[in-house]
Write a structure and sequence with these properties.
With 264 residues, the chain is α+β, with helices and mostly antiparallel strands. Helices cover 25% and strands 34% of the residues. It has 3 helices and 14 strands. The strands form 3 sheets. A 6-stranded antiparallel β-barrel has the order 3-4-7-6-5-14. A 6-stranded antiparallel barrel has the order 8-9-10-13-12-11. It has a two-stranded antiparallel ribbon with strand order 1-2. It is globular and about 50 Å long.
Length: 264
């Protein structure tokens, strides 16, 4: 059609390019739409009601031994709620720096506060809230060189410290697992029992590489995080309803022990 007249041919090719770019943009928008639909489907499958009904969110209350106040979230089986989950939308996220954050559309007006844990729509640990505003909050993700937390190897229950070296966003580092453990690629890493921000036993990632530190009796484990930090769109924020009481108890214990030590 455009081979007989060079001017017409150039103009025709330019018009074809415009049309091609138009349909490419529509295709990308459509692809984003279906990606969002898939993400929303996962969220609905793990919605607030299901997350909040998990047994791990409750502790057994011995009503013969203690007084349960009317305001406590206690069900008919005598179990008190320990964790409360809220869904949130990711507004902005970074993965390319050595100190990465994401922003969510939940703040103190929605019950979100500092030090609450954040999980992806597929249940993988993302990080924790470090700055809760009224309507929005900032989350420090696992891809932050200052974020270190205690986790455990599911197979043996041994604990270690997971961190990020600021290099590959698809690989974390776990230190402290002894060489006496039979660690294999694919082993599961879970949240531990030593954090007030995260419920224990939640998915963190899987072992991708097993390295031996010749200078110590511990492995250096490379972990592939369960959360995909490059495509986060929906998350869950989990609140430990006993956080303030447990934190206060720990601080009071430390003061009492220090006071006794000073009197000797």
């Amino acid at each position: 059609m455009f081979i007989y007249n060079r001017v017409h041919r150039v103009k025709g090719l330019e018009a074809a390019g415009v049309i091609t770019r138009y349909f490419n943009s529509k295709y990308n928008s459509l692809e984003d739409f279906f990606r969002m639909q898939a993400e929303n489907k996962r969220v609905h499958q793990m919605n607030d009601s299901l997350m909040n009904l998990m047994k791990a969110n409750f502790v057994q209350i011995d009503t013969n031994a203690i007084l349960v106040h009317d305001t406590a979230a206690v069900d008919t089986t005598g179990k008190a709620r320990r964790y409360l989950w809220r869904s949130a939308q990711v507004l902005y996220a970074t993965v390319n720096g050595d100190k990465n954050y994401l922003q969510i559309n939940r703040g103190t007006a929605s019950g979100v506060g500092n030090d609450m844990g954040v999980f992806s729509s597929n249940g993988g640990l993302v990080g924790k809230v470090v700055n809760a505003g009224r309507e929005f909050s900032e989350v420090m993700t696992l891809l932050h060189v200052m974020n270190k937390l205690s986790v455990q190897l599911k197979k043996t229950g041994n604990s270690g410290i997971i961190s990020w070296d600021g290099k590959m966003p698809t690989e974390l580092t776990l230190n402290g697992i002894p060489k006496t453990d039979s660690v294999r690629v694919g082993d599961t890493i879970l949240t531990g029992n030593y954090s007030l921000s995260y419920p224990p036993g939640k998915m963190v990632g899987r072992v991708s590489r097993v390295l031996k530190d010749e200078a110590t009796n511990f492995f250096i484990l490379k972990i592939k995080p369960a959360a995909n930090f490059g495509s986060l769109q929906q998350v869950f924020v989990v609140e430990n309803l006993n956080y303030a009481a447990l934190q206060q108890l720990g601080e009071e214990t430390a003061r009492k022990v220090e006071a006794k030590s000073g009197n000797k």
